[in-house]
Amino acid sequence: MADSIQPQPGIMDIALYKGGASHLEGKHNVLKLSSNENPLGPSDAAKEAALRASHDLHRYPSTDHAALRSAISEIWHVDPARVFCGVGSGDVLKLLSEAYAGPGDEVVFTEHGFAMYPIYARACGATPVVVPENERVVDVDNILAACTPKTKLVFIANPANPTGTMIGSAEVKRLAMGLPPQAMLVLDGAYAEFVDGFDAGKALVEARDNVFMSRTFSKIYGLGGMRVGWGYGPQAVIDVLNRIRGPFNLSAPALAAAEAALRDTAHTEKCRVENAKWRDWLANALAELGVPSDTSTANFILARFADEAEADACDSHLRSEGIIVRKVAGYGLPHCLRITVGDESGCRRVAHAVAQFKGAL
Ligand SMILES: *Cc1c(COP(=O)(O)O)cnc(C)c1O
């Protein structure tokens, strides 16, 4: 191609995002624990809704997402006019970046923050600003110290990925209150539903005009393949996002499945309870084998090894046993492996393989 045809500045600085692997050469019965997917899968009601929607695939989908926004409002007690629906929450965060940050602006996130944040920042030509954490926990003072008159967006996931740690609502509020006036706090709540009774920042969104919350159907709802997410924020921000999204951004089966998943609260509750039970069981089992982790509030644990060599060796052993977990060296955690909480048999398989690796069997 002619050298005179060039992409926008920043785009060629992006390293391609690598998703969790799902295949191992020559292995059957592979256990994929690398993408924080729900081992119980989606609600049956969601699958049936997607199937029903397939009869009308010749029709364009809803453009205002009214039915899904209304269901979100009923379940989460939010104002449906201030709910925005996107193609996964990643799409919501990307549109926010495009709308509010550009060349010369800064987008702040923390050192072990979600790998997509620097990609969103660079894609819109903004400058990513990486802030240290405190022992794998988001540090509000460090974030506030990094803010400048150029800061437009501050991204934190709470619970955080890949650390699984959280900060409390008083800290989140202190962060929102301390930001410079031109900066918006974005609370990525991809794992919020795994925390019993957690409002994910909803009250703060309603109390302030500089806070936005994003949520997803990809994690507890088991609909990662459908690509549905949503955001809740100031009316002015929602109005901006609606101007730049595709008018038919969500497919009809995706909208139908998400609405049905949301209404099947019994399935969601079962997933939350099962996740907490087996997550804590797995964390204890690994700790007894000399592999500690921070208390996780999400659907994965961040297993810590002595060093990078041991983490790599354990990863190789797990692979030889048909188990795929996530290496997180790219997140500044080369001595760790992020392990999604599977179902009971999945967790037992991981514990057994780690015990073999540690020579405990
Ligand atoms: C998985 C995840 C998301 C969700 O992405 P989707 O686009 O909704 O599938 C967002 N943020 C974090 C931190 C995640 O781990």
TrEMBL record:
Pathway: Amino-acid biosynthesis; L-histidine biosynthesis; L-histidine from 5-phospho-alpha-D-ribose 1-diphosphate: step 7/9. Keywords: Amino-acid biosynthesis, Aminotransferase, Histidine biosynthesis, Pyridoxal phosphate, Transferase. Its EC number is 2.6.1.9. SUPFAM superfamilies: PLP-dependent transferases. GO terms for molecular function: histidinol-phosphate transaminase activity. It catalyses: L-histidinol phosphate + 2-oxoglutarate = 3-(imidazol-4-yl)-2-oxopropyl phosphate + L-glutamate. Residues 29-353 form the Aminotransferase class I/classII large domain. The modification N6-(pyridoxal phosphate)lysine is found at K219. The keyword Cell inner membrane does not apply. It is an enzyme of class 2 (transferase). Its cofactor is pyridoxal 5'-phosphate. NCBIfam families: hisC (TIGR01141). Belongs to the class-II pyridoxal-phosphate-dependent aminotransferase family. Histidinol-phosphate aminotransferase subfamily. Homodimer. This is Histidinol-phosphate aminotransferase. The gene is hisC.
